[in-house]
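stuck on this fold:
=====
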Amino acid sequence: MKPEFKDLRTKQLGRSLRPFVDAKDSQRPQKGWIRAIRQATGVTTRELATRLGQARSRTSALEKSEAEYRITLGNLREAADALGCQLVYALVPKSGSIQELAEQQARAKAEENVRAVEHSMALEDQAVGGVDEKIEEQTKRILKRK
């Protein structure tokens, strides 16, 4: 991808993720969203099973799989729809922005590459130093390339 398009895409992605930043710190109900919303709205497992067109035991299994982080997105979307909800899904950086995450990853790659070369050069008694500057240069190259 051309650098100017990559920058634009990163900014667009950052704007799209903005509403999710606060949500990432929200605690998920211990037994999962399906059960919490079903109980809060007074929907029984039998009613949910009927809405999903499944057996009641399947509804309990669905709630259990969500609580254990084993549910598929498709099943979660179906359950949300049956409960009159919408599944909202995003991957949000643990800290900072998407741009900062890209820079951190580029810097890590650059440091690995530069330190490997510097080590080889040192073994051959040809090390030239200036590792930090080389890491910054390599980071900028990596960011432009993606």
In short: The mean pLDDT is 87. Residues 49 and 56 are 5 Å apart (CA to CA). DSSP finds seven helices and no strands in the chain. The chain has two domains: 1-21+92-146, 22-91.
